[in-house]
Amino acid sequence: MIADPSWATSRRAMGERKIRVLIAKPGLDGHDRGAKVVARALRDAGMEVIYTGLRQTPEQIVTAALQEDVDVIGLSILSGAHMTLVPRVMQLLQEKGLQDVVVFVGGIIPQEDIPKLKALGVAEVFLPGTLLEQIVHVVRQSVKRSLQTSE
Amino acid sequence: MTTREMTSHLEEALSRWEEQTLRPTLARLPERAAEFTTTSLRPIKRLYTPLDVQHLDFERDIGFPGEYPFTRGIHPTMYRGKLWTMRQFAGFGTAFDTNKRFKYLLEQGQTGLSVAFDLPTLMGLDSDHPLAEGEVGKCGVAVSSLEDMEVLFDGIPLEDVTTSMTINAPAAVIFAMYLVVAEKQGADWKKISGTIQNDILKEYIAQKEWIYPPAPSMRLIVDTIAFCTREVPRWHPISISGYHIREAGATALQELAFTLRDGIEYVEWCVRAGLDVDAFAPRLSFFFNCHNDFFEEIAKFRAARKVWARVMRERFGARDPRSWMCRFHTQTAGCSLTAQQPYNNVVRTTIQALAAVLGGTQSLHTNALDEALALPTEFTAMLALRTQQIIAHESGVVNTVDPLAGSYFVEALTNEMEQGCYEYFEKIDAMGGMIAAIERGFPQKEIQEAAYRYQQAVDRREKIIVGVNEYVLEKEPIEVPILYIDESVAEIQKERLRRLRARRDNTRVRRTLEALKEAARGTENTMPYILECVRAYATLGEICDALKEVFGEYQEPPF
């Protein structure tokens, strides 16, 4: 297991490698159409994408993020449990020293929750109808920004 | 003129039109696209003529409503006799909250109930289970025990309403709870009517809320069907569902073909278990999605009836005409709703609902405009219901049976859908049936592929979604008020469960759970044992866990 985030950061800072993304389905929600479509779009855009499969706990997601040394986590939630699950993921990322991993949320998210999620450190929230090219673009930009700030 | 002479005459006429009228027009004004396709990306021709339906025989393929092959509807008079059941799916928060919403909907003229359960309930978990955290009451009502079910239907006489319950992996348990509530109300099981979804195959394919592996899951379904034929004869023990398959990204044809092939699988299992096909087939029901592409959807519904009638009569040798009828519920497409400019969703839903009615649905749920953002509020739920009432009472489409029959386009499309189904059936049969196909990921992969192709078409703006990739507004002009479910629901549920577990006769609970496990290990019908557990106030989680001990749990194969 790669547990040394400083090593991961320096490797990332060297630039060369592909953006690594973990697409995760936290909670009990089984709606995985969005997660799978986004995973494939990011893959087609040249990123390395790991999909966790369904019903992962925040602990499992953060462990996978650490093991897979990802730059980005995409959380897909359509069940309304985002205000419980996302804060838990963000807190665990902090605890594991993974605060520079960029986190996105996609799914059925009421407007009023978007600022709350962003205040927790979520980089962007994608609602139904978001175009794939937009997701790819925002992911690339955010990883670039994150690398600049962590250098 | 012979048929052949007529055909060649028409072909000549068509070529003449193409040459003399069409060609100059195209030269002056080219069409807007090289190809026109449906929402499912199926190519559609410029023009349909009698040539496209020449191989169809009126009596064999179209015929009369209420008669084989039921292309035109399962009732001879359709909506002239009785309107479809307006059945709005509802459920959120605690059983108290949803009971209030049910009473509100009934007061507004809704004619049947439809229960949405929360995710822990759908997964057979009690509200106080650690995995339920954050999910209790969110996308449906939390029901962990008979006590919750009693509250849910408090003041609603179960002999007088019909209730549809969207529940699958733990369907037998939730159904048992409903039956015990009916029993306590003094309602006669022989008179109560409704539906449990109870369709595990589409869970493996699309919705993904499973508990047990396929074989024991199918056994539970056969048990409920067998139990209903004896004890609850007016109940629909299964609603074979394409809705979720479509929502996961399937095309209209895939939705239809996979759903009907699931239906074949259930019938095969029941027949193998020794049930007479005509004893249970009249109680089978279906559930379809209705997406935006108006004619494609109508063709899908008409083809559904035709294919199912042929399957039941020819493949299974059913003799009772009621066994041949594909009766179905329809829900407008949740996945067609946009979070952007959500008021536009009212218009989308209206078009979809109209297609469902022209397709001859038996019941209908219209989505509320805010469902790409959250659960509907009381106001948006009412507006969705009003949409159906306007179609029923103001549009005039109900005045005649199957008004689109005979349209060259609709009949050609209906026939294409039918033939497409048979092709999928052949493939799946060759794989060894639907369960074998699911285990190798066949329908799942087909759906994923279709979902991706569709999204790419949207991204490339080959498919325009108003407000999403065209006519976009920088700022939403109107904010939509949201129904918010807070964590107090989970707290209330936890407290109710704590008190229930302290108050009930726990020896009886243990005894009934042991008896259920024993029955599950053998071949007896499990329903009477589940009913005993429910009567003892064993919780949903306890009953599902007892069965897990015997049946094990399903793991999705990676693909």
SSE map:
The complex is a heterodimer of chains A (151) and B (559).
Chain A: H1 5-13, E1 20-24, H2 33-44, E2 48-51, H3 58-68, E3 72-77, H4 82-95, E4 102-107, H5 113-119, E5 124-126, H6 132-150
Parallel strand pairs in A: 1-2, 1-3, 3-4, 4-5
Chain B: H1 3-28, H2 58-62, E1 85-90, H3 95-107, E2 112-116, H4 119-122, H5 146-152, E3 162-166, H6 171-185, E4 193-196, H7 201-207, H8 214-231, E5 235-236, E6 238-241, H9 243-247, H10 252-272, H11 277-280, E7 284-290, H12 294-315, H13 321-324, E8 328-332, H14 344-358, E9 363-365, H15 378-394, H16 408-431, H17 434-439, H18 442-459, H19 488-503, H20 506-521, H21 527-535, H22 540-551
Parallel strand pairs in B: 1-2, 1-9, 2-3, 3-4, 4-5, 6-7, 7-8, 8-9
Helix pairs in contact in B: 3-5, 6-21, 10-12, 10-16, 12-14, 12-16, 14-15, 20-21, 20-22
Question: What features would you describe in this structure?
Answer:
The complex is a heterodimer of chains A (151) and B (559). Chain A has six helices and five strands, in the order αβαβαβαβαβα. Chain A has 151 residues and is an alpha/beta fold. Chain A has one domain: Cobalamin-binding domain (Rossmann fold), CATH 3.40.50.280. Chain A has a five-stranded parallel sheet, sandwiched between helices. Chain A is globular, with a radius of gyration of 14 Å. By secondary structure, chain B is α/β, with parallel strands linked by helices. In chain B, α10 packs across α16 (408-431), α12 packs across α16 and α20 (506-521) runs antiparallel to α21. Chain B has a domain at 78-459: Methylmalonyl-CoA mutase (TIM Barrel, Alpha-Beta Barrel). In chain B, β3, α6 (171-185) and β4 form a beta-alpha-beta unit. Chain B has a nine-stranded parallel sheet with strand order 5-4-3-2-1-9-8-7-6. The A-B interface holds A 27-33, 36-37, 40-41, 53-55, 57, 78-85, 108-112, 127-129, 131-133 and B 119-120, 122-123, 125, 131-135, 138-139, 203, 207-209, 247-249, 335, 337-340, 372-375, 448, 451-452, 455-456, 458-459, 465, 467-469, 479-480, 482, 484-485, 487, 556, 558.
